[in-house]
From TrEMBL:
It comes from the Eukaryota. Pfam families: FMO-like. GO terms for molecular function: flavin adenine dinucleotide binding; N,N-dimethylaniline monooxygenase activity; NADP binding. Keywords: FAD, Flavoprotein, NADP, Oxidoreductase. This is FAD/NAD(P)-binding domain-containing protein. Gene3D superfamilies: FAD/NAD(P)-binding domain.
């Protein structure tokens, strides 16, 4: 317990900020805090708790021994965005970096980011956050922690904070689809989640991969090298056979487990499946928040907006600006969730979001609950028009910001922050939109350059000018890669493998 006498004597002008997690989001949060005039004046004191032995989050490799594994990082993983787009706007990747770098390069980049901005001093590694609860009498957050290595039942230490930034990520707890018959496949080990996947290995002649995201595509491609047949289930995909690869739609039933048979949305089925790998994503998991503050269920339909915070595992709701709990049990501006969104550029987003977090922390009245409620209802109604009335489907779509929507969101946050950040120089650059539009073509063509051994030559010296000129060099390189893809596509099939 904190001595109330000591607490009453503390300097109320100094605010303590807790950051949970030091993956890319937590590091970005610390950097933006360190940029603030309040930090430089000694008025804001951040502390970040990291459960693992080092910073970097999912980019730190680990064997698939824990349940669930500490990271879903597989051996061959490279970024699915080109690094000029992926990077923190304040800190580019080094010159000559491969356009889609491997995980080891990203980890080194994150370590360099932390060192460059001198934020390691605020990080406590091997420290797990066990609980975060609001103390109404003290109007502060009680945060209990203990050494990760000592286990969840170890005695906890306690600290008080004025603001908590939740940056623990959402790629740890595997999501298992609700499909009839799946439990029987899991029970006998005939199905595993991609969280345990590290590299292709012989686990049978016929392998089923479920999921069409980046990991599902990578795993299906890798498993073709060691399996006779790979059946790849992607919702909405038309049935097609491409040699050893069978593309199929959504699975509606995991049927006879002995026979290894599954049924698809078009009514067809496949038999003889030896093993299934589920690349079906991950759940939002916030075990340190008690049930009194966060209910583990779908929220009720709106309006009205509920007074309680909910975790549907797909989204956290209701949040002002998709960050701040719109509840009355504690101040809205005292707790913030960063980078809950997906289908976005995360490193850039966290720096923008944290400027908004610090604005709300410094000026709590800048968040208007009535206006925020209107925005939430408007988004809810818009999603209902797009996806229907199913609350689960709405929840899945809630934090999904695709294409222009994510850029508008960032611009709106900077407008909210105001001051210099409301100026045109802080708007998302047009080249972000350009590269985002061509991201699939760009990555496919880059894979071809890697395949023929030309990738390193293409990036040699690119970015050495630094600053805006360095960015222009990277943009011109990406445009060249796109032009190469378009030229090869237009060329006769006999010439497509040779054009450089």
């Amino acid at each position: 317990m904190v001595d109330p006498i000591i607490e009453s004597e503390r300097d109320s002008t100094v605010k303590d900020i807790c950051v949970i997690g030091t993956g890319p989001s937590g590091l970005g949060a610390l950097k933006i805090i360190a940029d603030s005039p309040q930090y430089k004046a000694g008025l804001w004191r951040p502390v970040a708790f990291e459960a693992r032995e080092e910073i970097g989050g999912v980019w730190v490799p680990a064997p698939p021994t824990d349940n669930p594994p500490l990271t879903p990082l597989y051996d061959s993983l490279t970024t699915n965005l080109p690094h000029p787009l992926m990077a923190y706007p304040s800190f580019p990747f080094p010159p000559s970096t491969l356009l889609y770098p491997p995980a080891s390069t990203v980890l080194k980049y994150l370590q360099s980011y932390a060192s460059h901005f001198d934020i390691n001093q605020h990080i406590r590694v091997n420290t797990s956050v066990r609980s975060v609860d609001w103390d109404k009498e003290l109007s502060r957050w009680r945060v209990r922690t203990s050494p990760t290595s000592s286990g969840a039942d170890a005695p906890t230490g306690e600290s008080l904070f004025d603001l908590v930034v939740v940056a623990n990520g959402h790629y740890r707890v595997p999501r298992y689809p609700d499909i009839p018959g799946l439990d029987a496949w899991l029970a006998i080990g005939k199905t595993s989640h991609a969280a345990w996947y590290r590299h292709a290995r012989d686990i049978g002649d016929t392998i089923l991969v479920v999921g069409g995201g980046p990991s599902g595509l990578d795993i299906a491609d890798e498993m073709l090298a060691v399996s006779r047949t790979v059946v790849h289930s992607i919702p909405g995909t038309k049935r097609a056979d491409r040699g050893s690869l069978k593309l199929r739609g959504r699975i509606t039933e995991f049927a006879d487990v002995t026979e290894g048979r599954v049924v698809f949305e078009d009514g067809t089925s496949e038999s003889g499946i030896d093993h299934c790998i589920l690349a079906t994503g991950y759940e939002h998991s916030l075990p340190f928040l008690p049930g009194t503050l966060l209910q583990q269920s779908l929220p009720p339909p709106i309006p009205p907006i509920p007074e309680t915070l909910y975790n549907s595992t797909y989204h956290i709701f209701p949040l002002a600006k998709q960050m701040f709990p719109l509840v009355t049990s504690f101040p809205t501006s005292s707790l913030a969730f960063v980078v809950l969104q997906y289908r976005i550029i995360p490193f850039a987003l966290v720096e923008t979001q944290m400027r908004a977090v610090l604005k709300a922390f410094a000026v709590p009245e800048s968040i208007d609950p009535a206006n925020e409620a209107v925005d939430i209802v408007s988004r809810y109604e818009e999603l209902r028009k797009q996806v229907g009335d199913d609350e689960r489907v709405i929840a899945r779509a809630w934090h999904k910001l695709e294409g222009e929507e994510q850029f508008q969101y960032q611009d709106e946050l900077h407008k909210y922050v105001g001051g210099e950040y409301a100026g045109p120089e802080w708007k998302v650059p047009d080249w972000y939109r350009e590269v985002w539009e061509y991201k699939f073509k760009l990555r496919d063509e880059w894979k071809e350059l890697v395949r023929i051994g030309e990738a390193e030559r293409w990036v040699q010296g690119v970015g050495e000018a630094g600053g805006a000129e360095g960015t222009k060099e990277w943009l011109e390189l990406m445009r060249r890669v796109i032009r190469r893809a378009e030229d090869r596509q237009a060329a006769p099939s006999s010439q497509r493998g040779a054009k450089l």
